[in-house]
Fold each of these.
Amino acid sequence: MSDGVGFVTWRAAQQALVERALNDWVSPDAPAGLGLAMRYAVLDGGKRLRPLLVLAACEAVQGNAGTALRAACAVELIHAYSLVHDDMPCMDNDVLRRGKPTVHVQFGEAQALLAGDALQALAFELLVPDDGSTDAALSATLCRQLAQAAGAAGMAGGQAIDLASVGSALDRSALEAMHRCKTGALLQASVMMGAATGQPSGHALACLRRYGDRLGLAFQVVDDILDVTTDSATLGKTAGKDAACDKPTFVSLMGLAPAQACADRLLDEAHEDLRNSGLAHTETLHALADWVGRRVS
């Protein structure tokens, strides 16, 4: 992507593509109002960063765009399910998400729990279409990548550490390890799932993996910064919640300016990983890294 205007145009087009696909694939017809809760959780909100990373990585390796769109939506469904569950009273007990009431506030706790369960199942269904459009071996690879990122070694495990760490003084190594699981794993998987739709070299894959790792950690550092510098209306979620709940963050550990320097350094390293990859079409991945660093919500 040669300029900021070009990236904004690409981003808007891909966000619209993902939104249309999610609208088609997340049916309102699930029984007893479940489909409505699922659609409420997924549609009309969010930056769609994870799907954009899938699509940009597919672009970088010149992979299969149709399969990448399914993978992009699958990743977003996993992300959406995690937010539904994380916001519930037994977890983070949040009432605001993406600028609107959280799913359990709008539909009740039981329906929210079921909506999250159904979104998770639908994510894997999308990766194994019965129309022959995706190679079976590739479907299996994508399912494994997504499951590992979402499970005990990834997002769910990171959330367990997060809940167990309330009121604790984690050192930087422990904090980074937690967020590499809780937040970073799914962002890294987004890059790697997009890469899996093509046939990049082993060296290029290793560079993309490092890019995804650094981007994922930088995203969380920026998130911690925004939690103390931005209001709830801009964030679309409750600002200051981490401090109020006595959760360890990069800002509470390092201070605001060092945390910003840490995010900047991680993003510089992510750019370097792309430059070292040997891939010819990484402009959009570069632009996504810049977007992560500049975001305000």
Amino acid sequence: MQVLPLPSGATTKESPSLGKLIVLTGPSGVGKGTLMQKLLQRHPELYYSVSVTTRSPRTGEVNGKNYYFISCSKFEQLVAQGEFLEWAEFAGNYYGTPRAAVLDHIQSGQLVVLEIELEGARQIRASFPSALSIFILPPSSSELEKRIRGRGQDSDEAIACRLHRAQEEIQAAHEFDIQIVNDDFDAALNEIETVLFG
């Protein structure tokens, strides 16, 4: 991964003639990743910002497509250099959004979509107040637990941690511009498309 420095004089301030930043967030297991994948398939004109993470790849994940997988020391070096638009720690791992690529695509007039955790989404709202923020909600706590267990990727302890964190995150849904319940996948996807494209 090549991380470019922010161009001289560049800031995160926006101009009305530029593109738009769209932030998709919600608790772990709510289906935001699957919604994002389908959205990108149907709308290749969207620019998806691939996040950087220190966690290990899951089965089938590809470096540079799903995430950029790097070491903790490299991540901390990039933080110190100011290379992230936002970054956060979640479930013992770091996640961050590379700054330069996002700003370049917004300046070229594109819709840029981020799929990030709550803490990072709050950072984006602070630095990009005109970003459109969408919070994906589960239909119920029991359904969320079923989805997380259905992944078969976490220990019981990790699942309990994710569910506890999810309840806290759901309390923050009102902070976001739009809340969408992912009960019916196609309906949720259509709601996102309506928000983005009218």
Amino acid sequence: MSLKWEGIMPAVTTKFTDGDTLDLKMFETNIKAQLNAGVHGIVLGGTLGEASTLLDEEKSTLTKTTVNMVKGQVPVLINVAEQSTKAAIAAAQKAETDGATGLMLLPPMRYKSGDRETVEYFKAVANSTSLPIMIYNNPVDYKIEVTLDMFEELLKCDNIEAVKESTRDITNVTRIKNRFGDRLKIMTGVDTIALESLLMGADGWVAGLVCAFPAETVAIYELQKAGKIKEAIEIYRWFMPLLELDINPKLVQNIKLAEVYTGIGTENVRAPRLPLHGNERQHVISVIEAALKARPTLPNYKNLSTLV
């Protein structure tokens, strides 16, 4: 299927059993909830997916399982985050074999590559696969920024089509649009500035708290797209304390705990991560419980023509 870079694409969590194996039953429960809410794509094996702890065969299993589940309803992307160009090429080619629709591609891991090295890394991976690619630009967490000048060179590769824009600078949305128009699609990647980024022209949102609250996330996107900004802002303001759980070193544990409260996940994480405890846990629980008490009644966001 062709890949439309738009809408809500959950960066889904990876579900584990108590024995630290893939929990595909709970994973399916969560994916079904995402699809029922109307998401526009699924992103596997990202930061929230605990990518750095997954074995290659587990990534392959997740990809194949998701492709079989969604049956072409939405695109399925797998994250590529490797330490060497050789390994990244192998991962991209395996993803294509496994049936992925596209790739989310990070800069080299561990080694802080220079601009030229980063560009050559991305180009080598792009040239090794026919899959469409979204470059993940997150200098805050990964210490490598993909500048507009670097994108100028990268866009010579036809299958580099989008950026997951996570610089935390909303003005970058305008800079990208001014420089590249629709040639480089923008998927905002920071939950706490997502609506602002969408209103400034981002095409979609690779979201985190959507893992626990899929309907509310999709509703915000659909409402703002339909020009119902006031309604979107009202939900977004309710959502903000939860969204702030995403910009935290314990985002995986935070969001998995929220998934428990909404019935579509477990707290199981893979070591060295451990479930939240003590005051940290109580704080997150208080945020989740307060949000659930005030949870808004959503409009019929899947059929906005019926709204008054």
Amino acid sequence: MDLAWLEHSQYFAALAVGFFGGVHCLGMCGGLISALSFTQQAKMPKVKTHRLPILLAYNLGRVTSYALAGALAGALGASFLSLTGLQTAQHILAFFAALFMLALGLYLAGIWQDVAQLERFGSGFWRKLEPLSRRFIPIRTPWQAFPFGMIWGWLPCGLVYTILIWSLSAGSAWQGLLLMLAFGIGTLPNLLLIGVAANRLTQFSRQPAVRLGAGLMVCAFGLMMLWRLTLNF
């Protein structure tokens, strides 16, 4: 059973899922990043401000946390693979990842909302972690924004958790890291643009046609994963 297709296509797929799933990111983080964009003007109205370095540092911190989480998931999956038959176990993990990808697509499309239940698993951890981020508020420099973004990278999110489940089947800590890194990079265009055109993008993202299109695109990746897995059995 040849799994080479996973190694060559999974990173591009994760990148695309991050981009098209950015509709969900707009709802989760849009208000926060908009606040980051204008916090300096509110706190220091007489000082010339530069919003882009703040936004870049925040998102770099967020993506760094995604990559670390992917490495942990990949290492966990690799440990599981080492205890059983490599190819069979990797196919099983990839199969469940594909199912979660389909569920995520339906969630983004507004068709099936139960994926949001995944966010409950991290709610307890987040309640303990979130207060640490308040130490960096108000954010006036990129050096404050980066650790703030790292903390908020652990915000419970069904979209992130689904890609983490996918990372379990990556095969190693390094591959899991790259998978989540690709996903995080894919989310950047949407979240960086929020700081520039928050209101317009938020209104755009709430349109049913946009949500449906993004969800169906993610579903297509899930179906592709299932189809290619069946070819290798």
